[in-house]
Specification:
- There is one protein chain.
- The protein is of the alpha/beta class.
- The chain is 39% helix and 18% strand.
- The protein contains twelve helices and ten strands.
- It has helices at residues 8-15, 28-39, 51-56, 68-73, 83-89, 102-109, 111-114, 144-151, 166-169, 189-203, 217-222, 224-234; strands at residues 20-24, 43-48, 79-82, 92-95, 118-121, 126-127, 135-136, 156-160, 181-185, 207-212.
- The strands form two sheets. It has an eight-stranded mixed sheet with strand order 3-2-1-4-5-8-9-10, sandwiched between helices.
- Strand 6 (126-127) and strand 7 (135-136) form a beta hairpin.
- It is globular, with a radius of gyration of 17 Å.
- The two termini are 20 Å apart.
- Bound molecules: NADP nicotinamide-adenine-dinucleotide phosphate.
- NADP nicotinamide-adenine-dinucleotide phosphate (NAP) binds next to helix 2 and helix 6.
Length: 245
């Protein structure tokens, strides 16, 4: 992990000064990330298409996560706004929207609100329109992370955490004592270092493997077909891999 004295995260660690985190997305991933980031002392805002519609929803998510309004009751410090509100508020932005809608959601967040900021992309470009398991809507010679980086060249896109379940993202010790891997991909080395520091010091990851520039996100996204088969084979989404060499 490369130290960058003076960075916001560095100051946060040294002086317990929180960063402003903007999470685009309201599903299980965003809820887990927001809960953990707020618990670490960061200021958090979650972004959605329509705040009123979100708060009126009574159904929980597919994985047993509560309806958003119920989750929010337990997390009163987390702010809620539009995608643009959350991105404007944030020093670090997280894309936790459905992969098929991510470019649309980020466009709603607004180019100016993303410029110069680290944009942590945890989304997967899953096409769920066919029968299970889902396929990838982009792969081989391109990836969602690259599409995002091309569409928002002023943002520093870091792909990470898309290869693990939402609960494991922020608490890797829940399986195998935490001795397994997560990956980072991106063009900006400082941005990757800052995100890596958060993964290690904030979320508890011990093994963070830098795969390279943003084109390496193809590999992290194309791991999803294997992840889906691992989930089916072991019958549990709390599954991950350890890289040994
Ligand atoms: N679930 C996991 O364990 C897991 C693990 C790794 C990676 N991921 C990836 O993380 C991302 C988030 O997953 P999730 O399960 O938490 O939620 P999700 O159901 O995949 O996505 C929910 C979010 O997508 C937004 N969205 C949906 N359609 C949209 C549209 N047409 N335009 C703009 N925004 C739209 C929703 O906005 P509204 O708030 O306005 O409804 C909502 O905030 C996904 O890309 C997923 O593949 C998930």
């Amino acid at each position: 992990v490369i130290e960058r004295p003076g960075s916001r995260l560095h100051r946060f660690r040294d002086q317990e000064e929180g960063m402003r985190m903007g999470l685009l997305g309201t599903g299980p991933v965003s809820q887990r990330l927001a809960g953990r980031l707020a618990g670490l002392g960061h200021e958090v805002m979650i972004g959605t298409r329509d705040v009123e519609a979100l708060m009126a929803r009574t159904e929980g998510a597919y994985d047993g996560s509560p309806a958003f309004a119920d989750w929010r009751t337990d997390h009163p410090t987390v702010r809620v706004g539009t995608f643009a509100d959350a991105a404007a508020f944030a020093e670090m932005v997280w894309n936790a929207t459905a992969g098929a809608a991510s470019l649309e959601a980020l466009a709603m967040a607004g180019t100016r609100n993303l410029d110069g900021k680290i944009l942590v992309d945890v989304a997967n470009p899953l096409d769920v329109s066919h029968r299970m398991p889902p396929t990838l809507s982009v792969c081989n010679t391109d990836s969602l992370a690259e599409q995002i980086q091309r569409a928002f060249p002023g943002a520093k896109v870091v792909k990470t955490l898309n290869t693990v379940n939402a609960r494991l993202m922020v608490d890797p010790a829940q399986v195998g004592g935490g001795d397994h891997h997560v990956f980072v991909s991106g063009n900006d080395q400082e941005a990757k270092s800052e995100v890596t520091r958060l993964l290690v010091e904030g979320f508890g990851w011990t093994n963070v493997l830098d795969l390279g520039d943003i084109t390496s996100a193809r590999a992290a996204e194309m791991y999803l077909p294997l992840w889906l088969r691992l989930f089916a084979a072991v019958g549990n989404p709390m599954v991950n891999v350890k890289v040994v060499w």
